[in-house]
Write a structure and sequence with these properties.
Two copies of one chain form a homodimer.
Chain A: H1 15-34, E1 38-39, E2 45-47, H2 49-55, H3 59-62, E3 65-67, E4 73-76, H4 81-89, E5 98-102, E6 105-107, E7 119-128, H5 133-149, E8 156-162, H6 163-172, H7 178-186, H8 193-202, H9 207-216, E9 220-221, H10 223-233, H11 238-256, E10 263-266, E11 279-285, E12 294-298, E13 313-319, H12 320-329, E14 340-346, H13 352-364, E15 369-371, H14 378-387, E16 390-396, E17 404-409, E18 415-419, H15 423-427
Parallel strand pairs in A: 1-5, 8-10, 14-15, 14-16
Antiparallel strand pairs in A: 2-4, 3-4, 5-7, 6-7, 7-13, 8-11, 9-10, 11-12, 12-13, 16-17, 17-18
Helix pairs in contact in A: 1-5, 5-11, 6-11, 8-9, 10-11
Chain lengths: ~425, ~425
């Protein structure tokens, strides 16, 4: 006998647990499929180089990476986007725009904690080859469709921003180190006002500029209510003007999709520094108690790192850990239970073959049918049937000789004698 | 730009390819669910110790194993059975018999070749906690149900054996090294008669005993037609008698399931030496051109290696690589194509918002709807709609002002003017 524990941060899903999770995943797939995203599937393992491109050597500490027997440096995928980029660059013939989704497992070597696991599932939706406000709105809409189908419509808000807009305003303040400043802005939520401004002055910003950056990144609210304030702050240059008009355009399309009220502009949203070139957004529970439920943005300069095709892209990811926490808290997580249509009970072993024949008939009609496999008593069999939530118990006993069976409804306990030839239609 | 290749022996599935594969997997799940197997899900990574139990250090050469940052020896799972054993031993409260299935990815560090990949999917079905011929038949039947639902009913046969039966007959020949002899029998198919007998005499068997072992393991055919011959060879001991009666019993239940004609007894079937204690079986294409499509057997002494519960078990595995090859060869692999219900075409950008509103209405009804996201011509949009196999194109143009749209059927090219309020029912 050996150590029989699973690894820390990994999960076992027993049938009742898996049935509930499967229902959630099926709904998610239904939502994104209705939005005409196409499912792809891809390796769980890739070469480390694929991640070095953007993440450098830091990726080695955060992933499950190793040398295989052939000396290749490989890793369990920590995210899907590099794989998507690789797959798209390997096919020049794909019609644009490309709309792909998948729900791969991803692995990160982090300390497991609330909402953060070492192995998790992550929905990825990307639209590649189209760069306009309508496409941004389509992607945001898809995320809201997922939330709607999960009955979380009233439980979240999207906070969005445009990095070009933020960057151009920061530049107009005379800030040159916009990357470093954006890193501080990314942390703003975790900092006090004082800490935030101190971090900025440490970067060389004057107190008054730090003050202005603080005021700027305090802007948040309904887009239509903030456009005037934002417009008053943008400098007179093309980049700022384009970003601002894009935001106005986005607002129009969000209105057409009727999801405008789910969205807030928030100039402190930056989402790290890895990919994003324009729109960035995060979906949060309305109370703001959890990590982001989903997040994403536009990454127009990313695909070309993986091949010759220059393709703009926008996408989002949604992990299953935070989603599950919120759904459980809101009582939206499905019941964890087994379902069975029919249990075939045989009163004695002589009836076994008869029972198997009936079992086969029902299963052929896609009726989920369990049959007694052991030598056990009538009441033991009934208990098992109850345990697997059988809707009906078909009793193969003395009636069987006369081509009939007794059917017991486990819902109301009623019993009826049914001709075997009528059994399928009786059950269905 | 970097190296953008996937790893050798791993696979990318583009949307059209994935759609076909998904159809196959969905069918498989439907079959095993109708047989009341319950889906589980489990980690892709386990501690190496879990495999050492049965496979020893040899497992290290054949798997993707490594030390994680915490110094744990871990591996991508090469098979599911140890995980199933671990999960069952961690729960004493599960009702028996337990019927579980899953289709995990597995990874093996082998040279990729026809029907053998480094990353593959494998259907696993197990019945745990029941040891009788009826349970064996139920498991075999489940495998045949999978083959039936995939339209492979006429394309395969099951060859089965009972290891106790074979072992007891070999022992009656005075053979003591039955394990080594069974290893040679396992290879029989790849050997000439001469090589086979030489390998046996090398193990110390006399020429006449090697001859008898050869004759014995040549026995194959319909079970009912071979029972007499087998009975004439079994020794007068309890083990042999029990195994023989179990075989006769199994035959009766296979008949009840009406799958007797899919099964052949074949005394050369051994299936390695790792787990199996009784029934062993393999599903082969009728022409015998491929590796086994599926294989399994009874492993009654295995679960207890992982915990305190002593539980008999029987199971089978079916990888997707050989299955795909055979389905393709038989023209049973689904068409690789995208499917789309509706493409919403806007004649000019002014109609974009109108188009998005319609899109949203259709998607809410789970109609898979694509909408034009780019500025492009009427004919370009129509070409894209054709490319994604849209059934209908809804043209949002001048008619739209009057609350109507034009609907073009892409099947027959017919066009009709439809009230927007009737659109959902028209499409459905």
């Amino acid at each position: 006998m050996t150590n029989c524990e699973k690894l820390k941060g990994f999960r076992d899903f027993y049938p009742d647990e898996n049935a509930a999770r499967q229902k959630v995943f099926d709904k998610i797939e239904k939502a994104v499929q209705s939005c005409a995203f196409r499912k792809i599937d891809s390796p769980a393992v890739e070469e480390v180089d694929l991640y070095r491109i953007k993440s450098g050597e830091g990726i080695l500490d955060e992933t499950f990476n190793f040398e295989d027997h052939g000396g290749r440096e490989i890793t369990l995928i920590p995210e899907l986007t590099p794989t998507v980029a690789r797959m798209i660059q390997n096919r020049k013939d794909l019609n644009k725009p490309i709309k792909w989704y998948s729900i791969p497992r991803c692995w990160r070597y982090e300390s497991p904690q609330k909402g953060r696991l070492r192995e998790f599932y992550q929905l990825n939706c990307d639209i590649i080859g189209s760069d306009n406000a309508k496409t941004d709105a389509e992607l945001l809409y898809s995320a809201t469709e997922v939330m709607r189908i999960l009955n979380l419509e009233d439980s979240y808000l999207i906070r969005l921003n445009d990095r070009r807009l933020l960057e151009s305003i920061l530049e107009s303040y005379g800030i040159s180190k916009t990357e470093e400043v954006m890193k501080v802005i990314d942390d703003k939520e975790k900092l006090t006002k004082k800490e935030f401004k101190e971090d900025l002055t440490t970067l060389g910003l004057s107190h008054s500029v730090a003050e202005k950056a603080d005021e700027l990144t305090d802007i948040s609210g309904k887009i239509s209510q903030k456009t005037e304030e934002i417009e008053s702050k943008i400098p007179e240059d093309k980049k700022a003007r384009e970003a601002f008009e894009r935001l106005e355009n986005l607002e129009t399309f969000l209105k057409a999709y009727n999801i405008r009220d789910k969205c807030r502009i928030d100039l402190s949203i930056v989402r790290g520094l890895d990919y994003y070139t324009g729109l960035v957004f995060e979906g949060f529970d309305s109370e703001g108690e959890y990590r982001a439920i989903f997040g994403g943005g536009r990454y127009n300069n990313y695909l070309q790192l993986f091949g010759n095709q220059e393709l703009p892209a926008v996408g989002f990811g949604m992990g299953d850990a935070v989603l599950e926490e919120i759904m459980r808290e809101k009582n939206k997580w499905p019941d964890e239970e087994l379902s069975t249509d029919v249990y075939i009970l045989n009163v004695d072993e002589n009836k076994s073959r008869e029972a198997l024949k009936l079992t086969k008939e029902l299963r052929k009609q896609e009726i989920r049918t369990e049959v007694n496999l052991s030598k056990r008593s009538f009441s033991n069999q009934l208990g098992y049937a109850d345990n697997i939530n059988a809707k009906y118990v078909v009793i193969v006993g003395d009636q069987t000789a006369s081509s009939r069976v007794e059917v017991k409804s486990m819902d109301d306990g009623s019993e009826e004698i049914v001709e075997k030839s009528d059994l399928v239609s009786y059950i269905k």
